[in-house]
Design a protein that fits this description.
single chain, alpha+beta, 15% helix, globular, six-stranded antiparallel beta barrel, 22 strands, Thrombin, subunit H, 6 helices, 459 residues
Length: 459
């Protein structure tokens, strides 16, 4: 059979396919504006990013809180007693426990300085832990019984108590009034109540010792011999029968002198005290007083003369009632301001009278206080005068007052009362330098003086 090639090669019609066999044809359309390509982060990555940011912020906040806590803790531990008052040993008590009549500090610092006498009128003031201020004590219900308790609280002995009085005062800070059922055995501070008023505004005046009176000096300004009884507080402190240094009586039991005076002779048994003498033969007609305690300031420095002050306690009290030639000088009350323009007086034992260099006579001279800046100038002491010192220069220079009689007093008269304001630690320089005399500043040492008096008041 012959094959028809043409027939065989002719195109053949395919059978129609079913709809299920038809594949969609891709038709490319050219868009005029091609679509933007999105680079968005998947959702799980966005959550992770936020978690990281939160963690970093939390860590930074925690570090800042720790830093703040560290600063606060550092301030707390570097500032003692943020929550109260500090005792001497570093321990603390609440502020409300200060001056409440209960001893909370181991050494009693919280109850030590709660009673004071203010100003030239000797107005009694007591610190109130409730109102946190000093208040004048109202005279209503006050008696010598409370007066003796107050003096003892300051540091004086009950045996040396002098008197209480009254004075009208305008106390804007209120008063303290004694309870009606006063108990002598209990603390005075627990037997006072706050009051905004006081009958007739009458405050208590307190004199723990009869001081600052009875001076009969000629008051000549230049250095000259003192008359008997002119400076009744002046004493001669002697060792082995010879004058060693001067001192001032501040109560029948206590003498203020200089630390450099007692530094090399600290045994009480080596000392004898003579009061009411102005010339060598005076010791023959006056009794000597023995010493029970010699107390030099613990901060005394022999090189810089810092804290050059000391106390002597007598074994028996001076009996100044039998002689007008013996009597205490007053320690300066808070509120008694001795200014640089104030005149003062110095007294010292010197052996230069009539050319006799071996016999000590009591000499006196008027002085004027010297400003600390002037005393510290390059022509004077060149910065060696510290806050616990003061300077004074003779009004009329005389060779009789040159040199040093350690411990001798510098006193000032103010409002009719003689106040002890200095103890001699360096005499006036009478060479060409003309440096003023240097004295320990008694007001600076008041707390220390009363602290020692309280410590030894019953011995």
């Amino acid at each position: 059979m012959t094959t028809n090639l043409y027939l065989d090669s002719a195109p053949q019609k395919c059978p129609p396919s079913s709809s299920s066999d038809v594949n969609p044809q891709y038709v490319h359309h050219l868009a005029l504006n091609p679509p933007e390509i999105s680079h968005s982060i998947p959702k799980h990555k966005d959550v992770k990013h936020r978690c990281v940011k939160f963690t970093v912020a939390a860590v930074i906040s925690l570090l800042l809180l720790l830093l703040l806590a560290g600063v606060l803790l550092g301030y707390y531990f570097s500032s003692p007693c943020v929550h109260g008052m500090q005792c001497g040993d570093g321990s603390c008590v609440w502020e409300s426990q200060w001056c409440d009549g209960v001893m909370d500090c181991p050494a009693g610092q919280d109850e030590a300085n709660c009673v004071r006498v203010h100003g030239s009128s000797f107005l009694l003031q007591i610190y109130s832990s409730q109102s946190k201020n000093w208040r004048t004590v109202c005279s209503r219900g006050w008696s010598d019984l409370q007066g003796k308790a107050s003096c003892r609280q300051i540091g004086y002995s009950r045996k040396t108590y002098f008197k209480s009085g009254q004075q009208q005062t305008d106390s804007k800070d209120g008063f303290l009034i004694v309870k009606s059922n006063f108990n002598p055995a209990a603390s005075l501070l627990q037997q006072l109540v706050l009051s905004n008023t006081c009958p007739n505004n009458s405050g208590v005046t307190l004199f723990c010792t009869d001081c600052g009176t009875g001076v009969n000096s000629s008051r000549a300004s230049g250095g000259q011999p003192a008359s008997l009884g002119s400076w009744p507080w002046q004493v001669s402190l002697q060792v082995a029968g010879s004058h060693r240094c001067g001192g001032a009586v501040i109560s029948p039991y206590w003498i203020v002198t200089a630390a450099d005076c007692v530094a090399s002779v600290s045994s009480p048994g080596d000392w004898a005290v003579y009061a009411g003498v102005v010339e060598p033969l005076g010791t023959l007609f006056n009794p000597s007083y023995s010493v029970s305690h010699v107390i030099a300031h613990e901060g005394y420095n022999s090189f810089t003369l810092k804290s050059d002050i000391a106390l002597m306690r007598l074994s028996k009290p001076l009996d100044h009632t039998v002689s007008s030639h013996i009597g205490p000088v007053c320690l300066p009350n808070v509120g008694v301001n001795i200014t640089d323009d104030q005149k003062g007086w110095i007294s010292r034992f010197s052996g230069t009278v009539n050319g006799d260099s071996g016999s000590p006579y009591l000499m006196e001279a008027q002085v004027s206080l010297v400003d600390a800046a002037d005393c510290n100038s390059s022509t004077a002491y060149n910065g060696r005068i510290t806050q616990d010192m003061l300077c004074a220069r003779e009004v009329e220079a005389s060779g009789n007052m040159c040199g040093t009689d350690s411990g001798s007093p510098l006193v000032a008269l103010k409002d009719g009362v003689w106040w002890l304001i200095g103890d001699c630690i360096r005499g006036q320089d009478c060479t060409e330098h003309q440096r003023p005399g240097v004295y320990g500043k008694i007001p600076f040492f008041l707390d220390w003086i009363f602290q020692q008096m309280r410590k030894h008041q019953d011995e």
